[in-house]
Design a protein that fits this description.
2 domains; Rossmann fold; 7 helices; alpha/beta
Amino acid sequence: MSTALLLAEPELDTRVFLERHLKNDGFRVVDGQAQPDLVLLGDTDALDEYRARHGDVPVIVLGEAESDAVDRVRALDRGCDDFLVRPFDYEELLARIRAVLRRTMPAAHETLRAGPITADLATRCVKVDGLSVALAGKEYELLVKLMSDPTRVFTKESLLRDVWGFRSLGRTRTLDSHASRLRRKLSAAAPGAFVINVWGVGYGLLDG
C-alpha cells in the first residue's frame, strides 16, 4: 500500500499543487479521518492538535516566508521532524519527505537492544525490562542514535546534526532538554544509569 500523507495546508493553491504532484509521485493523500504515515503541516500552532489526534506521526512543517532560525528551533523543540521555509522547491520537499520516512519507517521487526532497553524499529515500541515506555518523536530518535553504539559518548554536535539536522551547535538547549526527558522516562521504568551526560563532550546511553 502506498504511503499515506495528510496535507494540512491552509493555502488552497499550495494544497492543490502539492496534492497533484504528491499523487503523481505515488503517495496517497488522505484527510484528517485517516491515520497518516506523515503530516505536512502548514501551521505550526496546530502541531499539538495533530499530535493529539494522530499520535507520534512524523510531521514536516511548511513555515512562513518570514520564518527564521528561532522559529525552526522552536518547532523542532515541540516535536516536528523537519521544517521547510516558503517558498520551497518541490523536489527539495520530496527529498525531505523521503528522508523522514526512511528514518521513521524502517524494515519490519528490526530490533535494537542495549542493556535492558529494546526498540522495535518497525513499531517504534520501546521497552525497558519488558515495560513499555512512551517517547515523543525526537526522544525516540535520540534513543535510537544512542543505542547504535550504547557505550560510546556522542558529541553534542553529532547528535544535533544526525537527530535534528542542525548544521552548527549554536545556542540551543534542544538536545539537553530532550536528553533529560529521555533519561527520566527510562529511569522510571527500571533502575539504572541511562543517558549519561559527559560534561564538555556529549551523551552516551549506558555507563560503559
